[in-house]
UniProtKB/TrEMBL annotation:
Molecular functions per Gene Ontology: amino acid transmembrane transporter activity
Regions crossing the membrane: 6-28, 40-65, 77-105, 126-148, 154-180, 200-218
Membrane in keyword set: yes
Claim: Electron transport is one of the keywords in the record: no
Protein name per its UniProtKB record: Putative threonine efflux protein
Chief localization: membrane
Annotated keywords: Cell membrane, Membrane, Transmembrane, Transmembrane helix
Cellular location(s): Cell membrane
Pfam families, per the entry: LysE (PF01810)
Membrane topology: Multi-pass membrane protein
Recorded GO CC terms: plasma membrane
Length: 220
């Protein structure tokens, strides 16, 4: 029984993490420019947020849930502004600097990863994902649909662990795929891709931020 609940949680975590959004774009971009470790730290930040929201829904932490939902507008504003900032910094990144990392030897790229801040990548993504408190409502609906309530502690813990595991699995697959594909490109093609992706990723991430701000403004 618990194994089946765990599998349901894993599938739920995969379904929540897989859709392409600003977090996925950040993960891909950071993996390309800063390496595997930074990409994984980015994904794990999002997985942690999914696990935390799943925990709130599973254990019926009503006060915290109500606080987040009642302040959805404020969190949406903060998240939108942060996405706009990330989009602009990505767009205006010097392509020559990023290309130097992309075309470096694997040992040199690992050195760049170690020098970059894993904590910054992790916590920035955790913060960005937590600015979407409406996720709690989705988790609550899914938990109710599966017949798991806060009275079943062991089932709730198992499902939350499954959600986190599924989300982590997706980010592992995504980062590994990006590393694999980038290693197949020639230095010239990688350079061209970097010049183009710097602009495209920046515009897309900024666009997600603008969408969040528009949704925030529509509430008034």
């Amino acid at each position: 029984m618990l194994l089946w609940i765990l599998l349901k949680g894993v599938m739920m975590g995969l379904a929540i993490a897989a859709p392409v959004g600003p977090i996925a774009l950040l993960c891909i971009r950071r993996t390309l420019v800063q390496g595997r470790l930074i990409g994984l730290a980015t994904g794990f930040g999002a997985a942690t947020a999914d696990g935390l929201y799943g925990m709130v829904a599973a254990f019926g932490l009503t006060a915290l849930s109500d606080l987040l939902v009642n302040n959805t507008g404020l969190l949406q504003l903060i998240g939108g502004l942060f996405l706009c900032y990330l989009g602009l910094t990505t767009f205006f990144t010097q392509p020559t600097l990023a290309t130097a990392v992309l075309t470096a030897a694997p040992s040199d790229r690992r050195a760049v990863s170690r020098s970059a801040s894993l904590f910054s990548a992790y916590f920035s993504t955790l913060f960005l994902t937590l600015t979407n408190p409406a996720t709690i409502l989705s988790f609550a609906a899914i938990f109710a649909g599966l017949g798991i309530t806060q009275t079943s502690r062991l089932s709730s813990v198992t499902l939350v662990f499954g959600v986190f595991t599924g989300s982590v699995l997706w980010w592992l697959v995504l980062v590994s795929g990006v590393i694999y594909l980038s290693s197949r490109l020639t230095p010239l093609r990688l350079t061209r891709f970097n010049r183009l992706s710097t602009r495209i990723f920046g515009v897309l991430i900024f666009g997600f931020g603008v969408m969040a701000l528009v949704l925030w403004a529509s509430q008034f």
